[in-house]
Design goal:
Radius of gyration: 27 Å
Number of strands: 39
Structural class: mainly beta
Shape: globular
Largest sheet: 5 strands, antiparallel
Distance between the termini: 45 Å
Helix content: under 10%
Number of helices: 7
Length: 593
């Protein structure tokens, strides 16, 4: 292979990286230049900010205040912040271990150089930028700081190994991206949300985070095809003027076969493809490009669409029930399916459709049985022989869902004690889902990539959303779940949750009733990091009571809400609700999944 080097934008050797890889750390010296890279859509380039060095004669409280300011350097840099530390702490401080975001701070001076820092409204990120929420559950964080004199000046000794930044700085400088791993069967990419600073440093931060592999708690849910021990062979992922990201990796990638290399490049392309201005990528080892699949030295970051987390090959048709028969709606055309659900009076109350739109499952009107049949009948008369009873003897079955592997998910509301089961190859098996099984589950959804289950759980104090990760084996068989955790909906206290669905592979659309006679669709991030302002930013308040929501994670899929009068409205790109050409009376609308 010929040696080729990309033209590097002004990303200098001191390019920072927030502890996302063992070989990448925050710079301790040197300057950092922010450069605008080639446009792809809107690029919000952060403005450089170099905080001042310590002032002579600063009091302990002033020094701590200035130290906090020094941690807001843009691009992210600890060179100035380390000057506020004692000589020993300057070299031993490891802020790469995580970040604390705070709403307000109060500094209290105590005798003998001791200072207590009180942080309120806090949230934490781990070393790679994963949102951890508020570890104090609203109590706030108290951090004691010990100051010592060096050369007659106060300096902080042994500070907490975290970056401490105000929420205003976080909102302005950080952005949510995704690290892309594979599901256990290597069929689809799985997005894992992280927050990293915007700008030229984002490529380095994201690749370094990807190289670390999945979180230990998710090893039963996803996998990475990055060879063990692979690190960035350098301090940055530079981007050329034509939008090519050069990814310098250690030589472990030379020891893997073409199949694994192809999956590794899929992870890299989807991860880097989120960054505005990055159009292509080139992987190098020792400065020499390595062949990408197809004997190419460069590849576009829009390739590998076959691993789309929204499952690009899935049907985009809309399904629903009219006069207790299943119909499909494409544009303004509505047709009954020719299989049993469109011909026979099965009287189902809710349906699920598999991703290729070949099979339909329906819950009978009494909620006791689940029936399954082909969507279309190619020849011969349609009879009950074409209908299979998947499950009989249920108490109150929720709408069924299919996953990526064609398995059917069922939740049976047995009083206030839900039972979760999965039907695979005609055999139903109960699966324990901690935090979901045994609870009063109102509704649930499974992500298209098959790795997340979100449920609405009813409790005395009101409903809440919980999310659990699905543990599978290499064939896609469900083995269990991680414990469910709550997805907070800030600012919606007292609002009834009426429905939910996937809006993107990393976010949910949640229909709520903020007040009598009104409805609103909230867009909720799966990591629970949405603020009250972000939740309702995509759609205006609907001035009627909507009772049903239909959404899909596929790009461009229309989001619908339905009123009690069975009238459908769709969400326009402007955020307004508009009427549709679909006749009123259509119920139980759903996309595949």
């Amino acid at each position: 292979m010929s040696r080729r080097r990309c033209v590097v934008l002004g990303v200098v050797a001191a390019l920072l990286c927030l502890g996302l890889s063992s070989c990448v750390s925050l710079p301790r010296s040197g300057s950092v230049e922010t450069v605008r890279i080639g446009d792809r859509g809107e690029i919000d380039v952060p403005v450089d900010y170099t905080p001042p060095a310590p002032k002579k004669g600063s009091s302990p409280t002033d020094l701590v205040s200035d130290f906090l300011d020094a941690m807001t350097a843009t691009p992210l840099n600890t060179f100035v912040a380390r000057q506020y530390l004692t000589s020993g702490s300057s070299t031993s401080w490891v802020p790469e271990r995580g970040t604390v975001v705070y709403g307000s701070q109060r500094i209290v001076s105590q005798p003998n150089g001791h200072v207590v820092l009180h942080l309120s409204d806090v949230a934490a990120l781990d070393g790679r930028g994963t949102w951890l929420g508020d570890p104090t559950h609203g109590a706030g964080m108290t951090i004691p700081l010990n100051l010592k004199r060096e050369d007659g000046q106060w300096r902080i000794d042994e500070p907490v190994n975290r970056m401490l930044i105000p929420a205003t700085h976080f909102d302005e400088q950080y952005q949510q991206y995704f690290l892309y791993f594979f599901d256990k069967a290597a069929q689809v990419l799985v997005p894992e949300p992280v927050y990293v600073p915007r700008g030229p440093q984002a490529a380095t931060l994201l690749v370094a985070g990807l190289l670390k592999g999945p979180e230990r708690s998710l090893l039963g849910t996803e996998q990475s095809f990055v060879p063990r021990g692979t690190v960035l062979d350098g301090i940055s992922v530079p981007v050329s003027r034509d939008g090519t990201a050069e990814i310098p990796l250690s030589d472990q990638v030379l020891d893997v076969g073409d199949d694994q290399l192809n999956l590794l490049f899929a992870q890299l392309s989807w991860t880097l493809g989120q960054i505005a201005g990055v159009e292509r990528m080139q992987v190098t080892v020792g400065g020499t490009p390595i062949d990408l699949p197809g004997s190419r030295l460069e590849a576009g970051v829009r390739e590998w669409t076959q691993f789309d987390p929204a499952v690009a090959w899935a049907s985009t048709a809309l399904f629903g029930l009219r006069d207790r028969r299943v119909v499909t709606v494409e544009g303004s055309q509505e047709h009954r399916v020719t299989g049993a659900f469109g011909v026979l009076p099965l009287g189902v109350r809710s349906i699920g459709v598999d991703l290729p739109a070949q099979h339909i499952a329906g819950v009978t009107a009494d909620g006791h049985r689940v029936l399954e049949a082909d969507r279309e009948q190619s020849s011969g008369a349609v009879t009950m022989a074409n209908v299979h009873t998947v499950y009989d003897g249920g108490a109150d079955l929720l709408r069924p869902e299919y996953d990526l592997y064609g398995q059917l998910w069922l939740v049976d509301r047995r009083g206030a004690s839900a039972e979760v089961s999965v039907v695979r190859a005609g055999t139903r098996r109960v699966v324990s889902a901690p935090g979901i099984s045994g609870r009063d589950v109102v509704r649930f959804v499974i992500s298209r990539d098959g790795t997340r289950m979100v449920a609405q759980v009813r409790e005395t104090g009101g409903d809440r959303l919980v999310i659990a990760r699905v543990i599978r084996d290499a064939s896609g068989r469900v083995k269990g779940f991680t414990p469910a955790r709550t997805i907070p909906l800030p600012g919606t206290e007292g609002a009834a949750i009426r429905d939910l669905g996937w809006r993107t592979p990393g976010s949910l659309a949640v229909l709520v009733g903020p007040a009598a006679g009104t409805s609103q669709v909230l867009i909720v991030k799966v990591d629970g990091s949405s603020t009250a302002e972000q939740l309702g930013a995509d759609a205006e308040v609907f001035r009627d009571q909507a009772v049903h929501l239909t959404s899909s994670p596929a790009v461009g899929a229309t989001l619908y809400i339905a009123t009690r009068e069975r009238q459908l409205f769709s969400l326009a790109s402007t955020g307004r609700w508009t009427g549709t050409s679909i006749r009123s009376g259509l119920t139980g609308t759903t996309y595949v999944g």
